[in-house]
Amino acid sequence: MIDNARLYAEPFARRLRGHADIKDVTLCALRDINDHTHPEARRYDAALINASAPNVEQVISSLSKVPLAVIALGVDETENRVIGLAESGAAGYVPLSGDIDDVVRSARAAVRKEMHCSPDLAFQLWQHIGLMAAQAPEQKPAVHLTRREREVLSLISLGASNQQISRELFIELRTVKNHVHNILRKLGAKRRGEAAARAHELVGWSAVTPSDAPGRRSRSPGRQGA
After folding, report:
1. Is the pTM of this model over 0.85?
2. Which of 5, 18, 68, 109 could form a disulfide with 47 if both were Cys (CB 3.0 to 4.6 A apart)?
3. Per-residue pLDDT reduced to its tens digit, 24-70
4. For the chain, what is the radius of gyration of the CA atoms?
5. For the purposes of burial, counting CB atoms within 10 Å of the CB of 198, is it exposed (0-12), middle (13-18) or buried (19 or more)?
6. Bridge partner residues of 73 (DSSP)
7. How far apart are CA 224 and CA 163, in angstroms?
8. Cβ atoms of 152 and 176 closer than 8 Å
9. How many domains does the chain have?
10. What residues does the HTH luxR-type domain cover (predicted)?
């Protein structure tokens, strides 16, 4: 059986081999390229893939572990098409109207980690990045609470007063007040109850009972000491 795809690609490969800027060209099966340990995958700088091939974006994604710059050939130069290829991992593309020189320029640019495209498409890609950033959920800042601050916050969530926290943790009242002040400041909270809610939201903190941590008395903070 004649491999029509290979016969079709041979003239293209011969034209690339004759280009002054190309050292070598070979035709590889996808299974060989996809194996990053295969000699052919490690020998070359770029992989050229027909953009009209079935499931081409999935194919490009499957090459993410291969040390090759993937170039999609024969691309309909629309924003959605190019963005889809870029999201799948393509390092460059050649439009339907491109020629052998465009293939070489795109491959060389991709190897240098550059992008060879029209100014109009570059602007569209830039706008797409801005749109994606605007739609991305706001990242909450990291909050760091010391071990003692977490202990104080645990007791706050259980309804303990500063005096009760002082007795539970064997620390002075003014030290408790300083911890509470720092907790409210770090969590951006104005009240004690809001601090516990903010802690759970920002740092995944959840309350523990006094007996869950070393150095605490095993009674409830609501009980009065002797």
Report:
1. no
2. 68
3. 677 666 666 655 555 655 667 788 888 888 888 888 887 777 777 88
4. 31
5. buried
6. 50, 94
7. 10
8. yes
9. 2
10. 138-203
